[in-house]
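Case study: Cathepsin W.
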Amino acid sequence: MMLTAHLSYFLALLTASQGLNDSFLTKDTGPRPLELIEVFKLFQIKYNRSYANPAEYARRLNIFAHNLAQAQRLQEEDLGTAEFGETPFSDLTEEEFGQLYGQQKAPKRIPNMVKKAGSEKWGQPVPSTCDWRKATNIISSIKNQKTCRCCWAIAAADNIEALWRIKTQHFVEVSVQELLDCERCGNGCDGGFVWDAYMTVLNNSGLASEKDYPFKGYPNPHGCLANRYKKVAWIQDFTMLGRDEQVIAGYLATHGPITVTINMKLLQGYQKGVIKATPTTCDPQQVDHSVLLVGFGKGKEKEDIQSGTILSQTRKPRKPRRSVPYWILKNSWGAEWGEKGYFRLYRGNNSCGITKYPITACLDHPVKKPPIPCPP
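Here is what the predicted structure looks like once written out:
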């Protein structure tokens, strides 16, 4: 039961009575509409939420109402096809969401050991579409970092897995836990950067398999166990690409998926579609979440976008647009989030800072088999 009409009704009530500004969380909450109570109960059941006491329940209900109202505003303001609404993070404040699921704020200057590739224009024709998910056994299954702030390690592991499969045509799943336990510059579940993960792989001369050294979601109290297990994949180096999106697309289509670090602010309420952010709604300089870039394409935009949970009865229909170019990104919050664990960002305006740190492992593994092309 979606309670669409009821949810629209209570959002209208909240908007009229409170203005739904960012400061309302500090106000006396008072009684809430019954429709909101019902929707929140369904949320608790769906995501297995319980709270310690009535005061905490009331606080989370207040945050939930605020987040749904914020999602409605984003839906009306977004210039792409994105839909925003209820997600597994709807009972968290923006600060809690960042602390639990992001990484450290990326530094203004990257370390000297990060090599930069040439920034010249891509010399080969760039295909109109590319989706590495369509190639057999190239992209591994969606991982779930849970409350461990290890997106940096997962993105690097996903990158190495994909490149290893493209180069060797051998399926591997590498150990994220080894990156957490054995890193020298990152902080395990307290955050890090993708270059910390690559330096760990180089220092350890490779990575063990996920099967041998499984993910726990917290650093091993016994420390690094890398020497106990056989290495199943390794890299020669890593490099950062230029910030030109055409260069990134060309490299992606030719060589394979790469890691990027973005501002994750809009992902808290994201359900599906293409996010076309502005610098105001998603600051491209404040990147705090690493993911794997797996493809790009174009899609037609709907005349009016409707969400199953936050329909607005008063919203004016949007004018139809011809097409929306987008990036396809693999996240690390489980397959039930977003578009089966993936999301899409508008391609062409540095949405959410996607061009700030495009980094990939360098894998030189001679094989006699022909290279795998990126499926359209």
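For the exam, be able to explain this: The domain at 103-362 is CATH 3.90.70.10 (Cathepsin B; Chain A).
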